[in-house]
Amino acid sequence: MDPIIKRNIILENYQNPEKKGLIDDNSYLKMNTNNESCIDNLDIMYKIENGIITDACFDGEACAISTSATSIMMKKIIGLSIEEAKELIKNYENMLYERPYNENILGELMVYDEIYKQPNRKKCALLPFESLKKVVGYEENNDN
Amino acid sequence: MNREDFPILSTGIIYFDNGATSMKPKCILDEVSEYYSKYTANAHRGDYDNSLIVDEKYEEVRTKTKKLINSKSDKEIVFTKGTTDSINLVANGFIKDILVENDEIIITKAEHASNILPWLRLAKEKNIIVKYIPLNENNEVTIENLLNTISEKTKVISLAHITNVIGDTRPIKEIGQICKDKGIYFIVDGAQSVPHIKADVQELNIDFLAFSAHKMLGPTGVGVLYGKEEYLEKINPQVLGGGMNSTFTSAGEVKYKSIPTALEAGTPNIEGVIAFGRAIDYLLEIGYEKINEYEKELSEYLREKLNLVRNIEIYNKEIEGSIVAFNIKGYFAQDTAVFLNKYKICVRAGNHCAKILEEEINVKNTCRISLYFYNTKEEIDKLIEVLNKQEEILDNIV
């Protein structure tokens, strides 16, 4: 992907994030996610009905990478089944850890395909996915 | 000044994170290396030559530390792992045993986590109360606010000498006098002060002083707890084992050694302590006065230049000192710090372990610049040049 396009997608999602703002609805699962080695702090809410993520939203204070990754993740996961969400996580992590992955599954998340070059930023890109993993019961190491 | 003594400074980094840790002059590295290459032995153990050299050198540092802070006796100097370890030792080994329900400990919301969390846990365990001195409009402690916070139930006041985000210097001498008059134990976190200013425990009426070697040119993993002899003698050792006991029997009769040895169980960080002694020598060779004078000039220059940067918000504008907390408006602190890193400028972004300071300054995360005597005006000029390119903060983000 062209670096300028990547940058624009990230900035657009940072400055005007999708699904930002929490809602008062007990039928949503609420997860706080914060990175132990950095200062980002996000709350993400998920609505799961009959094995499908039917809605999600988030709020919090975080850097440009975490915020944009969360915004893009919101758009990607709404409508996915739990199994599809696990597939997304697996491919996203593979990309970040420089393993083979399926570009078609990741779509806009491909903007982070070179983030591995900045180890101090990798955690930011992974942050929203840490909460998604818990919500869908993603088991570590099933991607190896 | 003295930049040529610091090998790391020739690698091209501009290091502005001295509040976190300091760089080390070559003589400190040599001191560590010599322990391993010339006279390795355990401390306080054997009768052979190298072991005696170790004992001598190790105890010599105690005397140097005593002189550095003008304590009355070597017995008042305990080597610990660092400031955090020192404060935890006082809290759990001494204060815990003397407090009763509803007693009060006074701190502020600007303290480092290491001077908050031990007290919050004691509060839960012993049903005591942690009170916060309200800070003034510049986030400083005033004597008036302190006096209004003290009650008959106040048993302990524990404060940083210099705070690690705002960087203000507290009126420790006056507070020490108040504590002395009212019979309150006075604990001082000297992590940010001892590297920069003379902390005379007698003149300042300090009962306990905690500080770390690594923020004052020494190695990591070494710290100091100073305590008045009469108090240290009452500390209940928190770590038991070799080196600190004098006798024990299978029937459970145990006798500990006298202080400070009773509080230094296990093999200490020998090379670290010895190298810390060299760090003290080095600092005193330059002289605190000269360091103060230079840092004052440097921080004035930094503030003057930072004030001219567009869109900057400085959170401790009215404070004199070598720490500046700021944000570039519209940018998250971490994004600014990562941007500066592209120019090899090291600053810290975050809450700097002062997580409840947010309630006072209404901002959670900041970029922090903390200077030391080896920083230069040229480095500050470079920082300003880069901050003036702030529209590029989010460029090349991936």
CATH architecture annotation of chain A: Alpha-Beta Complex
* Unreliably modeled segments of chain A: none
Order of neighbouring strands in the sheet with most strands of chain B: 2-8-7-6-5-3-4
Q: How many discrete domains of chain B?
A: 2
* Helix content class of chain A: 40-55%
Structural class of chain B: alpha/beta
- End-to-end gap of chain A: 26 Å
Structural class of chain A comes to alpha+beta
How large is the share of residues in beta strands of chain A? 15-25%
Q: What is the count of helical runs of chain A?
A: 5
For the largest interface, the chains and their residue counts are:
A-B, 23 and 16 residues
- Mean pLDDT level of chain B: 94
Question: In what order do the strands lie side by side in the largest sheet of chain A?
Answer: 1-2-3
What would you note in describing this structure?
The complex is a heterodimer of chains A (144) and B (398). With 144 residues, chain A is α+β, with helices and mostly antiparallel strands. Chain A has a single domain, classed as Sufe protein. Chain: A, CATH 3.90.1010.10. Chain A is built from 5 helices and 3 strands, in the order αβββαααα. In chain A, β1 and β2 (41-49) form a beta hairpin. In chain A, α1 (3-15) packs across α2 (64-77) and α3 (82-96) runs antiparallel to α5. Chain B has 398 residues and is of the alpha/beta class. Chain B folds into 2 domains: 3-24 and 287-392, Alpha-Beta Complex (Aspartate Aminotransferase, domain 1); 26-285, Aspartate Aminotransferase, domain 2 (3-Layer(aba) Sandwich). Chain B is built from 12 helices and 15 strands. The relative contact order of chain B is 0.16. Chain A binds chain B through residues 3, 6-7, 10-11, 14, 38-40, 61-65, 67, 111-112, 114-115, 118, 120-121, 124, and chain B through 332-335, 338, 341, 349-351, 364-365, 394-398.
The gist of it:
Chain A has 144 residues and is α+β, with helices and mostly antiparallel strands. Chain A contains five helices and three strands, in the order αβββαααα.
